[in-house]
Amino acid sequence: MVQNIIEIKGVEKRFGKFTAITDINLDIAKGEVVVVIGPSGSGKSTLARCINLLESYDEGDILVAGVRVENGANLSAVRADVGMVFQGFNLFPNMSILRNVALAPVRVRGLSWREAEQRAMKLLERVNIAAQAQKYPSQLSGGQQQRVAIARALAMEPEVLLFDEPTSALDPEMVGEVLDVMKSLAQDGVTMIVVTHEMGFARQVADRVVFMENGRIVEEGSPDEIFSNPKDPRLKTFLESIL
Ligand code: ADP
Ligand code: MG
């Protein structure tokens, strides 16, 4: 039996009278990599933010590791289960790289600094940035900062990692190093939802690609189905627009 880490059933999110996403149904199995694509404004970020409860949702259910993501209720449990990496890196500027990664396990999990920093060091090795551990965020390139942000998300040992356009704010020459880290996490079996415009990454790494348009999931399938044999005309138009 496949264990679904995330189950999304009939989810809708409105901002006032505006419906940002609607009728979203999506199950994500342990170890699966799902890439979400779609035009700007199609609701990709809103969906990601609902999974992490950065937004409340108005209809439906979201279950993470079998537990319903309650609007307002079990916020810290959800945040511990769902790691999030944003377009901007959001590191704490006044803390070393090592402390940035060690902080949440100390604050939320009650680890000692010594233990948390030992673990943080291992994670920094995993994202190839251990040599910078004592530096501050402003001393690092964007690509390096984003790799630290990934290590920081991993530090809470989440069930799933959520990426919202993690390379969109990077200079082109730094995109590859971040995607390489994400690829290696995928190979290690980390469950990931990745909102991205990097179609090469989607083709290579995704188990499944989900295309959103106008707040709905319009089509989903294997990378081959989505990129080589798109069915919905809106998906065809989108793919033509980005190639
Ligand atoms: P995407 O990430 O695919 O570009 P978003 O999820 O950011 O799309 O936005 C989906 C729609 O919801 C857009 O029309 C956007 O303007 C709207 N929206 C997003 N956040 C808010 C908000 N806080 N208040 C009002 N409208 C919003
Ligand atoms: Mg977005």
UniProtKB/TrEMBL annotation:
GO terms for cellular component: plasma membrane. Pfam families: ABC_tran (PF00005). SUPFAM superfamilies: P-loop containing nucleoside triphosphate hydrolases. Its main location: membrane. PROSITE patterns: ABC_TRANSPORTER_1, ABC_TRANSPORTER_2. Residues 6-239 form the ABC transporter domain. It is a peripheral membrane protein. One of its GO terms (molecular function) is ABC-type amino acid transporter activity. It is found in: Cell inner membrane. Keywords: Amino-acid transport, ATP-binding, Cell membrane, Membrane, Nucleotide-binding, Transport. Belongs to the ABC transporter superfamily. This is Amino acid ABC transporter ATP-binding protein.
